[in-house]
Design brief:
Helix content: 25-40%
Shape: globular
Number of strands: 5
Strand order of the largest sheet: 1-3-2
Distance between the termini: 65 Å
Strand content: 15-25%
Length: 161
């Protein structure tokens, strides 16, 4: 373990890289990122999370806002190996929020900034991280895919008469 590493800032890579749906390995961190983006949990850097949220839909602006947040946290990402297990490490930063930032940066790096989305349920406005394998999710965790659509709830198909 690198002595510059903040406690609790490790994101396990081996399980992530070997998974069929890799981003699910980051689920806890990404749910925390959603809470920070939607300001439902306190943050040490609320203006940076707000800037990311406000940039959703503009890929370049999302990446710039994430870079600014990482720089403001004095966070640098690195790889380390301990007994054959590779781990993405947030060096600098502060504990859990650094791990959340690391997971978000990894998803955006590998999956693209379009993985950060606005909930399409009318009147919701929550931001979520789409970690699904096909990046087809349209609703936040309060509005799962079964009920989310651009115009409101999805109706069940009619039964044949």
């Amino acid at each position: 373990m690198d002595e510059r590493q903040a406690p609790g800032s490790d994101v396990p890579l081996r399980a992530w890289l070997c998974a069929r749906v890799p981003f699910r390995q980051f689920r806890a961190f990404l749910l925390d990122a959603e809470a920070l983006l939607n300001e439902t949990t306190p943050s040490r850097a609320p203006r940076h999370w707000r800037a990311i949220r406000d940039a959703v839909g503009d890929d370049r602006a999302v990446l710039d806002a994430v870079r600014a947040m990482l720089a403001a946290q004095d966070l640098r990402l690195d790889l380390a190996s301990h007994q054959g297990v590779w781990t993405l490490i947030a060096i600098g930063g502060t504990g859990h929020e650094a791990a959340v930032s690391t997971a978000l940066a990894a998803v955006l790096d590998v999956g693209g900034p379009h993985r950060l989305k606005l909930c399409r349920v009318q009147g919701c406005g929550n931001v979520f991280v789409d970690w699904t394998s096909g990046a087809q999710r349209v609703g936040c965790r309060l509005h799962p895919a079964r009920t989310a659509s651009p115009t409101g709830p999805v109706r069940a198909p009619r039964s044949p008469s």
